[in-house]
Amino acid sequence: MISAFFIFNQKGEVLISRLYRTDLKRSIADVFRIQVVSNSDVRSPIITLGSTSFFHVRVNNLYVVAVTKCNANAALVFEFCYRFTAIAKSYFGKVDEESVKNNFVLIYELIDEINDFGYPQNSEIDTLKTYITTESVMSSPIAVEESTKITTQATGATSWRRGDVRYKKNEAFVDVVETVNLSMSAKGTVLRADVDGHILMRAYLTGTPECKFGLNDKLVIDKNERGASDAVELDDCRFHQCVRLDEFDSSRTISFIPPDGEFELMRYRSTSNVKLPLRVIPTVTEIGTTQVSYVVTVKTNFSNKLSATNVVVRIPTPLNTTSVDCKVPNGKAKYVPAENVVVWKIPRIQGGQEITLSANAQLTSTTHRQVWARPPIDIDFQVLMFTASGLIVRFLKVFEKSNYQSIKWVRYLTKASGSYQIRF
Amino acid sequence: MSSFRAPPRKGENFELSADLNSEYREKRKDAIKKVIANMTVGKDVSGLFPDVLKNMQTDDLEQKKLVYLYLMNYAKTQPELVILAVNTFVKDTDDSNPLVRALAIRTMGCLRAEKIIDYLCDPLQKCLRDDNPYVRKTAALCVAKLYDLKPELVVENGFVETLQEMIADSNPMVVANTVAALTDIHIAAVAAGSSQEVFVITPTILNKLLVALNECSEWGRVEILTALARYESPDDRESEHICERVVPQLQHANASVVLGAVKVIMIHMRNVHSENLTKQFIRKMAPPLVTLLSNPPEVQWVALRNINLLLQKRHDILSNEMRVFFCKYNDPLYVKVEKLDIMVRLAGENNVDALLSELKEYASEVDVDFVRRSIKAIGQTAIKIDEAAERCVNVLLELINTRVSYVVQEAVVVMKDIFRKYPSTYEGVIPTLCANLDELDEPEAKASLIWIIGEYANKIDNADELLGIFVDTFTEESYPVQLQTLTAVVKLYLQKPEGSQGLVQSILNTATKDCDSPDVRDRAYIYWRLLSTDPGAAKAVVLSHRPPISLPRTTVAPALLEELLSEIPTLASVYHKPAETFVGRGRIGVDSVQQRNSSELPDDRSATQKALQTVAAGRQAENLLDFDDVSAEDGQQPSGLAATTVLASTPAAANLLSGTSSNPLDDLVSIFGSVSMTPVQPPQPANALGGFGSPVATSPPVGLPAAASPPVQQASSNDLLGLF
Predict the structure, then answer these.
(1) Which residues of B touch A22 (CB under 8 A)?
(2) CA-CA distance, A380 to B347, in Å (whole number)?
(3) CATH code for position A415
């Protein structure tokens, strides 16, 4: 299992070093610095030297590194690294060199709690926050009672929830966030279109509520009601550990006791009938060797009551571009030489609209003509109250001993960031 | 707080020592923080040991943790002084606060000082039976720590038996940690050569594990799944039961749980005879595997490597899912390369058009390595699907017309493979290939084109002219090109004796007199003698019919594949090689594999063992890299290789591996071997012995993986020639 855990900065300086097992020495960190940090051509996230393996994940300007000496579970090690990052993020906002340096005492406390002898332990953020805090905890008699409660929770069957939660107003917020992945060929055919959905929940519910959650899942609806047409086919679902997997497996009901506060209830994937919220129609012509002309049209493909916001279109230009002049009816377009793209930012596009950018790029003449690889056009956007998969939350039922009324809120968001690509 | 990392001042330790003994609590705590900060950056603060120790007795949990952290680091260097801490530790394990009790027992296990161990046993005994589950789960792992330090003590105190009882604990987290501890001890015991099984999974334990599986934390589930994988079920009913209980875990959000469940199902499915059930399990496995691709790139890569293995065993798992493996422009290279390999595996008649247009797209990207692999993938598709071969050739022709040097060269290499699979089919392409003769500067591409010219000498009008160019520069070429030129000229002479007599004379002369490679020289002598004694025999040898190549369905030997599948998702299954090859010395070495082999094993098992053994032996020989920390301290830099290159550059291991494979056409794997990290398999020796003409004609250009080291492989096939 994990023998050591390190955090390096960009220069390869050790910020955090914790050896969990004794089969390694601290100086192993030097080996990583030489092999990975100062090596410009690292082509694998795992480096094995002799019998020592380095697993590294890059987070902002940091390397989060786990070292093993055995035939370690690779998926588990990476999941652990990412979990650490998530925990750190929730504790001190962002994870970068400065925050790690400022919070190193807390980080040591955390990594000792979430890993013992190389085996990951309870890493539920909500629970951790009850006993690893930024203020110091005094071991007074009152605390004893409290910590008994904490420890039972940290190991219990519902390790993610305290039993004594109280709220005046019982509320649950459900956010359905869908990320659309699209690859469209130059001819306009869809090569790949699928949706990665996340259902995030914020539960502010008293006691130990038993929740039941219903979607317009095709498999459920076909069984119960015939002829319902708006059902969605989910290719795969993955759940937070609070969801009873065996129940889902047998009857596809999603039932659980939620953690207190914010958590990701489920993730799903859908590939059939994906409604693409935006269409991009590019016409790019190379005029001789010194000019490229662009006409890029963005069309919205949803009801005019909704609108797409924060739209960012990135249009690649050849490497030898000197200047680009753009004309846009809406938003701002600017050539960014460092990335070789024209960035076109549109704050808002109403449903059913279409807008067109026309631009002309001037190229310098080069001695040897290099073929331009034409990377795809990439578009980021957000559309509120729209799901590309057509998914709808049908119900969220909350049952609790005290039988209180609870208020539920549902929000939908479809977005793309770096994965909505159109070739030209 | 960043001031803790201020540059060192003169006598900093002295100041810290004063602060540590300050009468103000806050000042002392700040001093401890500074000490820890210094420790992290590698400064020696061991001299402050007694001062830090004084601060151990405190009500402030945070401070206590800091002092403990310091102790864990320096206890080994100050064994005498650690004794002073024992009292506080033992007292803490009796504290009324369970967090304090757990903290004390956790830290004691990490101290690793001989002196303190003896004091550990009693508190540990107590904590294992603590009524708080948090303390119990911490104590369970502490037993594993103790075993690592002093196994005798664990045995003497009967801790292993206690652990075995704890599997029945009511708390799932305690069960999970107990399983982890027992597995850890089990592995250590096996590595130490203990014959006694520490952790046998009996049917009773099995049921307890299956119950705990649904309740414990994600990490605990991984441990339990690993244990389930080790269980040997007596009949198919039980195997079915295990699979059914594990299937829901495929829906878990944590990738390691999903892959762990896949492993258990793959293992226990071997015993399931019902065709229907097997199909059902496979069907349920597919969507979660695809979902793994929406993870961060590192996890994706691990998943892809494992999917690659799974596909070798079960071709049908993801048959309709090729599109999800299309590369995104911004995927990291290691992910793209794996996706390519998987796409070729999934290619079939129904999706080949989509695949080809995708591969063509990739061939215009920027990264040279990726472009080359994409072109190679086109060739593999052509060889895999007969019906699509023509479309593939057309795509290759389009690529050649781009006239980008590396694209053309790779396309030529790929065309040669296509000619081998479909002899005399696409001769119309040859003029285009020959037109690009001047563009070629890489040995492999040159050798490939020369092979094509030699092979179709009688259909190319100006073959003598073309070959003449290479004969003129013969001595400047690299050996593979020389060998190929030699063979091609002889082929030309045998097919069109008129007009090429001078060429053959001059090349044989140059090769025997001016060439410093013994391989080239020897081959020239053989040809010379053959031609001068019996031209008929020469024809039979040099122009002999070669078997067509095919795309291997697996890149590892079948026995090894089974072994690797039961290792999902560990490093072994990511690297596609047995753990013994990279986990050196300690744990399971070659010796123990041999030992296990000598004991009685069922037939299929022993085959696996044998395969492992040979590969391990091969790797062990190479494993000089297995550096000590000492060597690193000395500043000796281990000449490590990135994971992707490790395998390709170990022909020794590959040689051995090919010996264990039963596929007679294994030499062809070498063509494709370099695509992934799988071992490269050189030509089968048997093939060469069958008729000594065959290596002459087949081996040199055909089997040269781009990334591997050609000289060694060359030698292995050409040695045989030297015998004659």
Answers:
(1) 112, 148
(2) 32
(3) 2.60.40.1170
